[in-house]
Design goal:
The chain has three helices and five strands. The protein has a five-stranded antiparallel β-sheet with strand order 1-2-3-5-4, covered by helices on one side. The chain is globular and about 35 Å long. It binds guanosine-5'-monophosphate and zinc ion.
Length: 112
Amino acid sequence: MDKDCIFCRIAAGEIPTEKVYEDERILVIKDVNPAAPCHVLFLPKQHSGSLLDSGGAIVGHMAEKVPEIAKKLGIDEAGFRLVINTGADGGQTVNHLHVHLLGGRSLAWPPG
Ligand code: 5GP
Ligand code: ZN
């Protein structure tokens, strides 16, 4: 736990948030500033700064849970997008690994 990390503080229950799913390793929460009608974040409870130092197993665990969560949110049939912003050029603003799940509208490609 990094006490200066907002997602660690959310995972520790110090900051209230709308949880969509939780297990022993990850949390899925609603994004506070949604970029699409449906926008949730998958975050590991254990801190890692980005995909670069996450290992990879935890990303696999999050990916495994995506179908279940997409179904729960009602976006599995229409489709959705997963995004892992990494570093400055990737647009990462919170330095705790997280996966965006976006859906609920047709999403443009390529991203800006
Ligand atoms: P990034 O730009 O790092 O890929 O994404 C960070 C995301 O976290 C942004 O979409 C932002 O809206 C969201 N976010 C930042 N602070 C909080 C917070 O305190 N609670 C929640 N639920 N989302 C947050
Ligand atoms: Zn953290």
